[in-house]
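FAQ

Q: What does a record look like?
A: Structure on top, sequence underneath. For example:
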């Protein structure tokens, strides 16, 4: 998993989300020149919220598996996208939404999430 190709990898691994992602890209005027944090914050996080709220289980499994791979990645920049963009934004959505998402998180993603939550509880 490479930082610079993170969004491309996401789209390749979860092709079911393509139309949703495309809509969000247009709404937020996102293109390849935007940084990974901006793309994940304005495109991927809304997609995660949408599939969790819509209970799209096959897509949820794929997305949270991708997040787990991010959590296990040795590239600290990939971890930072997961922590400071994805998980912090999910935490910002409120306790109930975060708890809904945590149901689908695998062990390493959950560890990252619990570390992020510590900052929100201070």
């Amino acid at each position: 998993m490479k930082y610079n190709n993170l969004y491309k990898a996401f789209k390749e691994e979860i092709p079911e989300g393509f139309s949703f992602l495309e809509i969000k890209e247009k709404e937020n005027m996102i293109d390849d020149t935007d940084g990974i944090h901006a793309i994940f914050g304005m495109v991927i996080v809304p997609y995660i919220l949408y599939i969790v709220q819509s209970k799209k289980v096959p897509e949820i499994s794929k997305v949270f598996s991708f997040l787990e791979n991010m959590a296990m990645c040795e590239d600290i920049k990939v971890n930072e996208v997961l922590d400071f963009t994805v998980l912090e934004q999910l935490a910002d959505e409120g306790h109930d939404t975060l708890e809904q998402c945590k149901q689908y998180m695998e062990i390493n993603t959950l560890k990252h999430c619990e570390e992020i939550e510590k900052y929100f509880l201070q």
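Q: Is there anything notable about this one?
A: The helical segments are 6-13, 18-27, 36-53, 57-72, 76-92, 95-102, 107-120.
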